[in-house]
Specification:
By secondary structure, this protein is mostly beta strands. It has no helices and 9 strands. About 0% of the residues lie in helices and about 50% in strands.
């Protein structure tokens, strides 16, 4: 196999909610995986913290790991709790508000 070719790879993470902490009065983030087609960023939000409206340069998937987040996009507001997920297309404006202390997994999907 030449250096330009790569063998398929498997990467696993266990208990990802434990890889980010919730800090008082803050929003924190940590990239925990960068692999073929995806980057996974974990966020910890204290209650009342938010990400104001913004866009992503690629499709994304949001999944709450702990807590309760209110997601606003595409003319709707969705209460996202553990077990639910949301997909946004490229450059869709969206905002995230923490109703209570929460942890979020953001999967950034990139097929380049």
């Amino acid at each position: 196999m030449s250096s330009a070719e790569h063998a398929p790879a498997m990467t696993d993470l266990d208990a990802i909610a434990d890889l980010v902490t919730i800090q008082p009065g803050a929003t924190v983030s940590r990239t925990v995986l960068t692999a073929e087609g995806v980057r996974v960023v974990l966020f910890g939000f204290d209650a009342g913290e938010q990400l104001t409206e913004h866009t992503a340069a690629m499709p994304v998937v949001l999944q709450v790991l702990e807590g309760h987040l209110r997601i606003t996009a595409d003319g709707r507001t969705v209460d996202l709790r553990p077990g639910g997920l949301i997909h946004f297309g490229t450059r869709l404006p969206h905002a995230v508000d923490a109703v209570e202390p929460s942890k979020l997994a953001l999967l950034m999907l990139d097929d380049r």
